[in-house]
């Protein structure tokens, strides 16, 4: 048995300089693989009856614990970089209606599960979950408790817009059982904030972080975005220094993808003010250097954590996983999604809900679950999902284990993939040893590229003549190859 070489060690300078050198040649962009197959492969063929069947299978697997995602789409103001599914409004009449429909959706779903199930991981995302007023939050939580058990020692997290909460609101979140918070920051520079239409003074964010600590939240996570207008390496470094004074347990540093043809709000961003590709790379490298020097572990895919944080510990022990919320220590559970555009993963099926409020309400008014599309995984999908997960999360693939679990011969099943992997190996991204594939330090910085080798659907796209390739995106579907930054409230 090989010793597990932990990928959690600090990134070395050599890997970072190799990364710089390769950046022009190897594109580090690609799917984030919060699911495999990726959400853009979901289709309308998976309908409500298929979801019923999935829920029946999930019911048969009781008492296995569940994970749950709840989408609150409302925001008071638009951030110009936004690529999320949200509804801009100040009208709380709209959220009151939404809250009551969320209750209906939970009741319908729970009826199919045939009893109260334990939810060990829950996450409220958006939009802006803290758009809901205290009474609305209590109602949503009451609906959850009516249909599910949410033990206090589970992971219960919520995305917070620091501009919209005060100490009292944070105290309410603690009272409601949330024990992890994730705060959208993006950048503290006033000029950048103005250009993205998100004015958020440092003091405001600090007050929320202080409140979280005082109230005993187990983990505080901050989101930054690089590649925004007016950012330079020096300016972003200043933001990073201020962030370090807050010492969040986790940090996400997302890349901004400027796609104004897909995401309308981005048309209000001045393209001439965007940093060049070279500057953007510089910002990323110096951020990684600074954060790792400050003691953060590079988890991978834009994520950093303090060494004693659950994510870093799970990665050291080789049991980190991915789900729709990104890296997780609980990803093995079936996940239920509630609210518009929410994605669930239930008994080998992915299910996504209607994207608009109208469709969502209409389905529930008719007593139907609001399924819009989804995907039923075949055994090949499960196999590849496991491989991609192992490479992305723990940086190592144990071939004998995969062969035993899936009853395959790895070398003959993945001959084409191994040839591609060897090309990445020549560039130093992976190391192949008898019985295992290991992602190097450099490879971890380009891990999407490594994972893409095992994506059957990308391979099929590439093999097709250009005319037969998928049509340009009209904004209704997630974009392929584009790093998403969905947790940026
Ligand atoms: S970035 Fe977040 S807070 Fe801003 S508009 Fe989009 S969903 Fe709302």
TrEMBL record:
Belongs to the anaerobic coproporphyrinogen-III oxidase family. GO terms for cellular component: cytoplasm. It catalyses: coproporphyrinogen III + 2 S-adenosyl-L-methionine = protoporphyrinogen IX + 2 5'-deoxyadenosine + 2 L-methionine + 2 CO2. It comes from Cupriavidus yeoncheonensis. Binds 1 [4Fe-4S] cluster. The cluster is coordinated with 3 cysteines and an exchangeable S-adenosyl-L-methionine. Its EC number is 1.3.98.3. Keywords: 4Fe-4S, Cytoplasm, Iron, Iron-sulfur, Metal-binding, Oxidoreductase, Porphyrin biosynthesis, S-adenosyl-L-methionine. Signal peptide: none annotated. Gene3D superfamilies: 1.10.10.920, Aldolase class I. S-adenosyl-L-methionine 1 binds at residues 69, 126, 159, 343. The lineage of its organism: Bacteria, Pseudomonadati, Pseudomonadota, Betaproteobacteria, Burkholderiales. GO terms for biological process: protoporphyrinogen IX biosynthetic process. One of its GO terms (molecular function) is coproporphyrinogen oxidase activity. Its cofactor is [4Fe-4S] cluster. PANTHER family: COPROPORPHYRINIGEN III OXIDASE, OXYGEN-INDEPENDENT COPROPORPHYRINOGEN III OXIDASE. Pathway: Porphyrin-containing compound metabolism; protoporphyrin-IX biosynthesis; protoporphyrinogen-IX from coproporphyrinogen-III (AdoMet route): step 1/1. [4Fe-4S] cluster binds at residues 75, 79, 82. Monomer. Involved in the heme biosynthesis. Catalyzes the anaerobic oxidative decarboxylation of propionate groups of rings A and B of coproporphyrinogen III to yield the vinyl groups in protoporphyrinogen IX. S-adenosyl-L-methionine 2 binds at residues 81-83, 127-128, 186, 198, 223, 257. It is found in: Cytoplasm. Residues 60-294 form the Radical SAM core domain. This is Coproporphyrinogen-III oxidase. It is an enzyme of class 1 (oxidoreductase).
